Amino acid sequence: MGSNIINLSDNAEFNKAVGELRQINTGIIRHYYIYTFGCQMNVHDSEILSGILSECGFHPSPKAENADVILINTCCIRDHAEQKTLGLLGTLKELKAQNPSLVIGIIGCMTQQLDFAKKIKAKFPYVDIILGTNCADKLPAAVLNAYTVEDSKKRRTLYHDDNDSSIIENAPVKRSRSVTSWLNIMYGCNNFCTYCIVPYVRGRERSRSPEAILREVKELAENGTKEITLLGQNVNSYGKELDYSFARLIREINKVDGIERIRFMTSHPKDISDELISAFGECEKLCEHLHLPLQSGSDKILKDMNRKYDFAKYSEITKKLRQTQPAIEISTDIIVGFPGETDDDFKRTLDAVEEMRFSFAFMFAYSPRNGTKAAAMENQIPNALKKERLNTLIAKQNEISAQISSEYIGKTVEILSEGRVSDEDEDAVDKTKQMGRTRTNKKVYFVGDDDTSGKILHAKINNSVSVTLGGEIV
Ligand code: SAH
Ligand code: SF4
Ligand code: F3S
Question: What is the pLDDT of residues 103-117, one digit of tens each?
Fold first, then answer.
């Protein structure tokens, strides 16, 4: 199945709505605010939504309270993520009561769920726009509709892409950072891990053309980007339908002047090819870090999760990677409390964590998702036990993460400075400091007078706190 390319630069419908909104906004300063939940993919999608609203003549607002258009870019990977959006919708009701012309939109993964629109209409009738994960092209028309249609019932736009085969190209992007940039290279997922909602809400796998990607990489390099992070739900499955390998794409990006570092996420172990492993030895810009979700150390659980590898296979991949690139650090995702997980299965996960020595891990308690296979499995694990296992795992991994960080003390490492720490950086204790990342993706905090943003520096590490480091520039 071919992808349907929606080219925004010559999309008449899109450009007409953008033009009309610009006119409506002439002489008036109107603001937008976007809440973003979920993964990097969503963070980057919000950069596109920001770019589009800016094209329409809206200005970013630092606070939701002052905004005329509020979007929530949603996530439904776990129940907790959904609750955050539902809670937020409750508080936005008050803003809408104070300002009836406020436009509220819900975008992204949550909206693609079965009956979601019906639920929202019933519980949150003041929501004006509901748009699916792949519908940024419809945003201007939806906002225009909310502004210009008098009848409150007709003000609402509901749209989602059931076909899920489209790729939006040439969208205006308003990136929140410039030194390091996210870049989507593929969309969707075909894996159907039995616990996961993503294939249902993000559709089937489809890859952007290498030409479009390389063009964007070159543009970013010309505008000061030093580090590119390639994004995809199953990023290393890139190019299958184009007969173009992911490793080849990395080799091409490695040649682009101005780009100093390449990263990618998230990879699936089943798609780690020997060609990709070799790239870690060949491409000097490819950083020595790989995020490779293990999910469980038990072969039985991995099978029930439909992960298509066993622990021996995973372990073999990491060995090959470490042989090719001894400096590589591997991080992971782990789920505890998957249906049927016994004490013995859980112990295998603990043993795996011990053996693998991950530099860090995102660890989760299994959250049943409506419509997925695992949600219908018997032997669901009680919440209290999930929590207990999660705490045990976190304690063990934290010890390992801290140990790996402490091994940096006394060493001098290359960092790419991202300049002064941002307010959102939860790891930063001292907001006057600057931050740069090692090639292994560790944050290093340091004191510097001038803003060093975008510079490759060398830092001597003198302390470590869990996964972060502190040092001085040498
Ligand atoms: N596409 C990526 C990321 C998927 S979501 C990948 O395949 O790795 C990020 C992580 O959330 C997953 O790796 C998994 O560990 C976790 N996750 C997904 N569904 C979950 C669920 N229902 N309950 C708990 N954790 C889940
Ligand atoms: Fe979900 Fe599995 Fe696809 Fe990752 S690979 S998005 S965990 S179905
Ligand atoms: Fe969440 Fe959607 Fe990402 S469900 S994790 S925002 S793909």
Answer: 999 999 999 987 888
